[in-house]
Amino acid sequence: MTPILIFDLDGTLIDSAQDLHAAASRLLQGEGLPTLSLETIRSFIGNGIPTLVDRMINATDLQPRDRTRLISAFLDDYQAHATDLTAPYPGVEATLTQLRKSGYVLAICTNKPQRPAEKIIEDLGLSHFFDALVGGDSLTTRKPDPAGLHYLQSSLGGGPVVYVGDSEVDAESAVNAGMPFALFSEGYRKSPVSEIPHTVVFSNFTDLPSLAENLLSAPA
């Protein structure tokens, strides 16, 4: 069976923190409130936009009763500007090209809503690398529930999988799915690498193909 690499999106394949911060700033300004720092918004990333907005509510004078409206406003604004400042991490495109040439099936499992995630990878010229994408609203559950990872594995032929991500949520997802986890150390993790369960760790995408080859059966 063909081996599969499943990737997280934000903080793994793409550095989207600046666009998320810009959207958060516009939302707060529209509500007549002070903005939050880039580092604060970066610390809120990892569980999807509804959770990011929840954390903004907890950190500011935004009102919990407005949650549904705020999430909708954030999503509408973010989707209109999602690639203004966002870019793939260094080496991502070359690495994905190499992995595809080596015969791997590639997919994405993210807590970002599916349509915005699909549009971002399309706008960044990455969509042709991937055979499938599961977003935070694709199924009835989202990470760290393993359903998305299991769904992708099953729908892509049932081959052995490595999950590649950057965060505590990604690590927990891999543990729950019973899959090896490759931790990208340069993303949005909140804990030291030593405290995040992982099978391998890397800081440069050019190292990923050899790590994948060691973790999975070499493609034919």
Could you characterize what this model shows?
The chain has 220 residues and is an alpha/beta fold. The chain has nine helices and eight strands.
- Termini distance? 9 Å
Note the total helix count.
Answer: 9
Shape: elongated
- Which strand order do you get reading across the main beta sheet? 5-4-1-6-7-8
CATH class of the largest domain: Alpha Beta
Number of domains: 2
Q: What is the alpha-carbon Rg in Å?
A: 17 Å
Q: How large is the share of residues in beta strands?
A: 5-15%
Q: Biggest sheet, in brief?
A: 6 strands, parallel
Count of strand segments: 8
**Percentage of residues in helical conformation:** 40-55%
Briefly summarize what is shown:
This protein is an alpha/beta fold. It has helices spanning 17-30, 38-44, 49-59, 67-81, 92-101, 114-123, 147-155, 168-177, 208-215, and strands at 4-7, 14-15, 87-88, 105-109, 132-134, 161-165, 181-184, 200-202. It is built from nine helices and eight strands.
Architecture blueprint of SSEs:
Layout: E1 4-7, E2 14-15, H1 17-30, H2 38-44, H3 49-59, H4 67-81, E3 87-88, H5 92-101, E4 105-109, H6 114-123, E5 132-134, H7 147-155, E6 161-165, H8 168-177, E7 181-184, E8 200-202, H9 208-215
Parallel strand pairs: 1-4, 1-6, 4-5, 6-7, 7-8
Antiparallel strand pairs: 2-3
